[in-house]
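Chain A, query sequence.
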Amino acid sequence: MAVETETEPEGPTGDFKGDIDFNDNPPTKKDLEKVAELPVLDVHGKPHSFKSLYTTDDQNEGSRVLVIFIRHFFCGNCQEYLRSLSTSITPDALKSLPIPTKIIVIGCGQPDLIPMYVRETGCPYPIYADPSKKLYAQLGMIRTMSLGSKSPEYMQYSLPSAVVRAIYQSLKAGRGAFKGGDYWQVGGEFLFEHGQVEWCHRMRNTRDHAEIPETRRQLGLDGAKPPSRKTFSSGIRRSSSQLGRRLSDRRKSWSRSRDRTEKSSPEGSMMEKVKEDKGAEEASERSSKEGAKTISAASSSIAPT
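Chain A, predicted structure.
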């Protein structure tokens, strides 16, 4: 499979603009034979042959498998991708398909970090590790640090925010910060059906996973824009609105409680009595004034002209 590759440049910096130009041709049967027995590690570090992930003895189950290759486990771009994908393509959505379908994720870091990755992304699908990166190389995935020319739709956090989150996660991981994987390695998506790749997409830059609507179309789901995820800012707005309603209800409750307390106390009763007396006095005064006006009007009407 002829694929152009980009090697790591000498020096501390590389090309961070543009995309790498190469094809998305599915790997051939011969290509798949070369990678069939390559190991991937589960969360416990137990090895499994790559072929065992996309084939099964029971053809009525798991006959189609979408294998998603991500970058290193601290990549904020890939984490955003999996958050969006997990929201849009749920296990229940896969169950609704006429062809039994599964999704599997493979990263190039150490399996020790898989639990952290699950917590950060909320990914409901199995995650494996290929720290040797042999699968990436044999299936034509490249190494690049290019950011590409535009931000993908699945990115709901800004790039600076994603970078900050990645740095925080790596610092929080302690010694695990060095187990995330190759920062230059990018991944892609491979849709296996009955042991053969029917569709694939290879990343051309660090933010070039297949867009969610395209992935949905390939799986046989609709091509509609994926539903919006609940983000940190939306959570703040929702919490603020709820807090405002609770404070308003609390103020009304305090006001009613204060009124009841004032009425039930001796001082409150006295004040109520004073208010009632004052009200009666004002009503009497208004009645007297109205009576005087009536008498004056009547006198005027019978006075001689």
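Confidence is low (pLDDT under 50) at residues 1-16, 232-240, 301-305. The chain has ten helices and seven strands.
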